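Supplementary Methods. Inverse-folding protocol.

Structures were first reduced to a discrete structure-token string of length 204. This string, shown here, constituted the complete conditioning input.
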């Protein structure tokens, strides 16, 4: 029996949901743990997209490998990746892919992703995907907030030390970044402000 996001919801498994480190929600605790690396990609006009890299804990990785690495060679071929995307990743499309973004304090809906890939490496499953997000630079700062989380706290996502954010192609712009709690957002039964990446950029 394949373990997918749908099985999470049915009670057989836990939904793949994401949060940053913080106080636990009432009556919940994480079952899946993910390291996230975030790359903000710029072109000549401004922000062009956000690339997300997830590295899963060994237990979840083993379950996905068992169910989707059909030839058991610890390498995911293109057909296996396509099946993972459909059955174990695509489900969260209706939930904004659990990547909550704001542009100048207004919510940005993540309607689709590009360039999805999954790999198995040294016992860890990884996902990579690109979120297109085009924001033109102007003389005044444009503000981006990015915070993955799940209000039900079934999974925990955190930043690896020193590797939480990479900026690509930003030579034309002045950029400032910080990571701190988003005080404008309450999650986990309105008990926690999630951690977020705050980035502002403007024309030089």
């Amino acid at each position: 029996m394949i373990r997918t996001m749908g099985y999470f919801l049915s009670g057989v498994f836990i939904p793949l949901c994401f949060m940053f480190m913080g106080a636990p929600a009432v009556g919940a605790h994480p079952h899946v743990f993910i390291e996230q690396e975030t790359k903000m990609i710029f072109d000549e006009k401004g922000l062009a997209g956000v690339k997300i890299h997830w590295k899963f804990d060994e237990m979840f990785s083993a379950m996905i490998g068992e169910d989707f690495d059909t030839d058991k060679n610890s390498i995911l071929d293109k057909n296996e990746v396509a099946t993972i995307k459909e059955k174990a990743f695509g489900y969260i499309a209706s939930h904004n892919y659990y990547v909550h973004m704001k542009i100048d304090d207004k919510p940005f809906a993540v309607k689709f992703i590009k360039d999805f890939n999954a790999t198995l490496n040294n016992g860890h499953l990884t996902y990579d995907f690109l979120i297109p997000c085009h924001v033109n630079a102007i003389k005044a700062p444009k503000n981006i907030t990015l915070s993955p989380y799940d209000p039900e706290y079934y999974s925990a996502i955190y930043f690896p030390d020193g590797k939480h954010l990479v900026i690509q192609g930003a030579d034309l712009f002045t950029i400032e970044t910080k990571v701190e709690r988003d005080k404008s957002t309450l999650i986990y039964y309105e008990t926690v402000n999630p951690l977020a990446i705050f980035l502002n950029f403007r024309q030089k």
